[in-house]
Fold:
Amino acid sequence: MTELPPPAAKKLGLVIDLDTCVGCQACATNCKEWNTGGHLGPLPDLNAFSAGAEGTWFNRVHSYEAGEGEDGRTVHFPRSCLHCETPACVTVCPTGASYKRAEDGIVLINTDSCIGCGLCAWACPYGARELDQDEGVMKKCTLCVDRIYNETIPEPQRQPACVITCPVGARHFGDLGDPDSKVSQLVAARGGYDLMPEMGYKPVNKYLPPRERPKAKAASLDEAQPTPLDIKNPLLRWLDRALSR
Amino acid sequence: MNPAPSIVFFTTASGAGYGLLLWLCVLRPLGLVPGGSGFGLVALGVATALVVAGLLSSTAHLGRPERAWRAFSQWRSSWLSREGVAAVATFVPMVLFGLSVLAGNGAAAALTGLLAAAGAAVTVWCTGMIYASLKPVRQWHHPLVPWGYMLFAGFSGAALLAALAGFWGQAAWPAALAAGLGAASFGFKRAYWAEIDAPPPAGTPTIETATGLGRIGATRPLDPPHTEQTWLLREMGFRVARKHSRKLRLLVLGGFGAAALVSLLAAFAGGPLAGLLLVVGAAAALGGLLVERWLMFAEATHTVTLFYTGEA
Ligand code: SF4
Ligand code: SF4
Structure:
């Protein structure tokens, strides 16, 4: 059913910390690794061993430069499905293959009824859906629905693959519908925000902005310690070096 | 957006087919086109052929065409589904109209014809709304878009009807209609282009709002997430057209203008000359429309390219 379910209390999603992300691509890689054998797998690669290799991925890590000069920052930016609250990728689907779960808000695709029309990918502002060109059906992030409820794996591992694998702990998973959850508190404390809020899709996933850096102090010649090269008098230079040993 | 030939052909052909059907069913009971069953059946046949060819071509775009029947189920939320339902439902009065024309039953033909005309209009409206409902594509998510689909279907349908009526030597009314709609299409398309060429309104997404990094400052892409092409970028990041868009736009306007002009001449000329002119006019209208539809895709930009190039 591609009508949206009534708003649910539970909103599972991710919180991504742009301050700590180092752009290592581990989340994208482990996502591909888990999901090619997961709920929406396989995630095929075409021409995998020759020129023009390309494949279906659920997560793509960009890098940006924001701001100018000294205030400029390099920011690594993972991009995947945001499991929006009012996603048109669901309502445009003519077959009912694209759906949002009533119980936890996860947006999924039923690949048995998808006709591969591609309309949902057009309707997603965030580019979160990629066609599986092998099978002719649409694929996207499942929030690792096959891990987070999976009672056959140890409890601490019941987290999305990208979250578990992130070496710097930049990714957090939880219920963003519950104001007392750890993720909600993190969002509140760090000023987590929505991507492209003007589109009106109400993303569940939140991004934490890079922390403000202390401003670099304006360098002043008087205060700066002289380096040995700054000392022009050869005798003083020798003295400075001898005494600094 | 990538102008897939199957979709460009589909929307042009089925639009013209529905336009032809609509004007046939509206003008026939008014006595403004040849009233014999021969003309009625030929025009209905051409309309049906165009509609069916268009619908079949649209399935070529699907990853799993054999499941196309599933697309009829979600009409409550999806314009694509509604289009499918409306297209199939319209076949019912189309067939009944054909039978009434064959039987020479004027009243039944008028009634079923009106139903078929309504179905045609609804189907074309749904086609337009598929595009107009897509927020991430600024050039499509515009109130003029569905009206454009309606107007161009009406224009190409009238041009076709006039060309067919020309063979019966009674084309004055549909020719005048085609001339009027051609002129309207000419002006409409120019107005639409003026709208989408204007600086995007405030509140249009930028790379700063897409990434949320505007709080730091102006943002530009540094490293792309992948070095090779992806399906997504092929689909949404199509850029070839923008280089040639000026020439292609002139081609569209040329086609529309020429069709309107020769139709006007034909409306006054009459006779075999009018017949010839109207065939030329219909060809110009359809040719112009194919280019128009191609540009409709090629000039449209998707917000996902903000993440890659910083521009949409
Ligand atoms: S990010 Fe895109 S695919 Fe995911 S729910 Fe939102 S609109 Fe749908
Ligand atoms: S590609 Fe599949 S999931 Fe997406 S809109 Fe079409 S049928 Fe629905």
Q: What stands out?
A: The first helix of chain B runs from residue 5 to 27. Residues A 81-84, 87, 89, 107, 124, 126, 128-129, 140, 201 surround iron/sulfur cluster (ligand 1) (CB under 6 Å). Chain B has eleven helices and one strand. The longest strand of chain B covers residues 219-223.
